Amino acid sequence: MSICIPAYKPDFFELALKSAIAQSFADTEIIVSDDCPTDAIEKICERYSGVVHYSRNPNPAEYKNVIRLAGLANGEYIKYLFDDDVLNPFCIQYLLQALEATRDRGTRLAFSPRYFIDEKNQVTNLGNGLMVESSLKVIEGRDFIRITAVKHHNLLGEFSSVLLRTADCFDEAGRFSLFKVVDGIISGPLDLSSWVGLSLKGAIVGHPMPLSYFRQHSNSQSNPATNRYFIYSIIYYEEVLELAIANGFLQPLDLPIAYRNLINHYSYWRESFPELDERIARISTFL
In this protein, which residues make up the domain named Glycosyltransferase 2-like (predicted)? Predict the structure, then answer.
């Protein structure tokens, strides 16, 4: 098992690292790939030498760090942990058990509900958009894509809430394939575009227990004010809708609901991104 930490911000990094070290599943390696412009991450890792495999990323960028870590991972399974998130001590054990228990269903990843926390480690909300309750829940890949295409939300969660097989990060030619990068730009959010790609290959399984903590704060990459590529995350949902239509994943009554929800999604962001007005006008003609 490889716990892979793409590290950039030192603010909460040590807490994230400690949660990786504290996992109940013992057969793990912890790999840190450092993008930090200072030596702050390196100095923290020095305190855990012998436990952590540390190296600097020679080509800094969040998506490049994710790709690099997949290539460094030696384990059959990979558990990403972003530098400001936290894992429950049983996270890997339970997600691995869920993935293996459903192997015969063709599951490609395991996830769980996650808590949202603030800068003071206070829980602010529970994310359980796919309604995993009381027992393991297997969702066929086409159904996950359909739900995403209709609702236009990442209902599964972020990288820190998921466990997958390392081999599924690569295509048959050995090239990283979780998400696509064209001219340094990802067509959508790193996490959701990865889950959609995996869902085209098989099912996903949810464990009912919240097993990770996703931190929301002012310096987060999910903050549009600090992420100049955020617009691509917004319009990606239209790409998912087109994918669902092309593959016949939608039910007869889905399409008008999907279009209305997409208009609402774009309308929410139009003040920050006025270029969405053109998309809103075009989609409105479909109703």
Answer: 2-104
3-state helix, strand, coil in the chain (%, to 5): 40, 20, 40
CA distance 48 to 39: 15
Distance, in Å, from the CA atom of 194 to the CA atom of 176, rounded to the nearest integer, reads 11
Predicted TM-score of the model (pTM): 0.94
Domains in the chain: ranges and CATH: 2-215 (3.90.550.10), 230-284 (no CATH)
Quickly tell me which residue has 């929800």 as its tokens: 261
Contacts for 183 with CB less than 8 Å, ≥ 6 apart: none
Cα-to-chain-centroid distance, residue 212: 12
For the segment 63-104, what is each residue's pLDDT rounded down to a tens digit? 999 999 999 999 999 999 999 999 999 999 999 999 999 999
